[in-house]
Design goal:
Elements: E1 5-15, E2 24-40, E3 44-51, H1 65-74, E4 82-88, H2 99-114, H3 121-136, H4 144-149, E5 152-158, E6 161-166, E7 173-179, H5 185-190, H6 198-216, H7 220-226, H8 233-236, H9 243-252, E8 257-260, E9 267-271, H10 274-288, E10 295-301, E11 308-309
Parallel strand pairs: 3-4
Antiparallel strand pairs: 1-2, 1-11, 2-4, 2-5, 5-6, 7-9, 7-10, 8-9
This protein binds L-homoserine.
Length: 311
């Protein structure tokens, strides 16, 4: 065995992207998850420490998304060694930024590097999805897939899993407003209706197709016309104090589309430059501060690489 430990980052992700509930997502450069993965002589998987999570995440290896993903990975390797993790959370769980997916991606990515890359990205995706399942109670790939692949992705289908990486405009920026409270994905999913009228399905389908086409054609006007959601946003908006006012602030400061990031409470707003992204963030924070005491803003380009080795 060569190298014994590795330090990696995995990016935050914005899932749903407005109309693409459970089928679209993209990665951003900040915030990131940081993780050290060590090979040990003692067999088994352990988490030695988690910092930055306000003691909320489980050290229990059967409940943490990183160790569950590793468990499935190690079941496929002849292993006499053990694996130990140190996790540094820079995005807390329940943020809507794919925190659990970042853990589920970072761990198998890091171990694969230490082992000399025996697994393909597709296999890493399967391990990460099984890890992510313990956090959200369902298999949805719209955080895991962009976290592992970078960029925008479309999940064309789940059975079988069919993930399509999408090109996107090079100068696009994403502003994240993160009001500092927690929403549990499992709870937020219960708010979503199971049945929709045909005319709403038609509108939503048109918007997803328009958004994908707009991304591929670098057409910001089309992206703006298409970034509307009838499924998750109306059901979850009430969970975020001042949501529609914050969204209006983003749009009136030049955003080309704004909605809830995943199940929230983070809100994303796309823009055409860093300067616009910063101005949009300032406007969103000003409004949100009336309702929620602490708000964090991130302005980031689209992350196009996924996880990285940093040490
Ligand atoms: N698509 C999922 C949802 C993502 O909105 O419930 C949750 O992170």
């Amino acid at each position: 065995m060569g190298q014994k430990s590795i330090k990696v980052t995995a990016p935050a992700t914005v899932s749903n992207c407005g109309p693409g509930f459970d089928i679209m997502g993209f990665a951003i450069n900040t915030p990131v998850e940081e993780m050290i993965v060590r090979l040990t002589n003692k067999p088994g998987i352990r988490i030695s420490k988690i910092v930055g999570d306000k003691n909320k995440l489980p050290l229990d290896v059967k409940k943490n998304t990183a160790t569950v993903a590793l468990h499935h990975m190690l079941a496929r390797v002849e292993s006499k060694f053990g694996v130990e993790l140190e996790i540094k959370k820079k995005m807390i769980s329940g943020s809507g930024l794919g925190s659990s997916a970042a853990s589920a991606v970072a761990a198998p990515f890091a171990l694969n590097e230490l082992l000399g890359k025996p697994f393909t990205k597709k296999e890493l995706m399967e391990f990460a999805l099984l890890g992510e399942e313990v956090a959200s109670g369902s298999i949805h790939a719209d955080n895991v897939a962009p976290c592992l692949l970078g960029g925008f992705v479309l999940i064309r289908g789940y059975n079988p899993l069919d993930i399509i990486p999408l090109a996107a405009p090079k100068d696009m920026f994403c502003t994240i407003l993160h009001p500092q409270f927690e929403i549990k994905t499992s709870e937020a999913r219960k708010l979503i209706r199971k049945n929709f009228y045909l005319h709403d399905v038609i509108t939503q389908t048109g918007n997803v197709a328009g958004l994908v086409t707009g991304l591929l054609k670098n057409n910001y006007e089309l992206i703006k016309r298409s970034l509307h959601d009838l499924i998750a946003e109306p059901a979850r908006a009430t969970l975020i104090p001042g949501f529609y006012e914050i969204k209006e602030a983003a749009l009136s400061h030049g955003s080309i589309g704004c909605s809830i990031s995943g199940s929230g409470p983070a809100i994303f707003a796309l823009s055409k430059s860093q300067e616009e992204g910063i101005a949009i963030g300032r406007a969103m924070k000003k409004v949100s501060s009336k309702y929620t005491k602490e708000n964090i803003v991130h302005v980031s380009p689209i992350n196009r690489v996924g996880p990285r080795i940093i040490g």
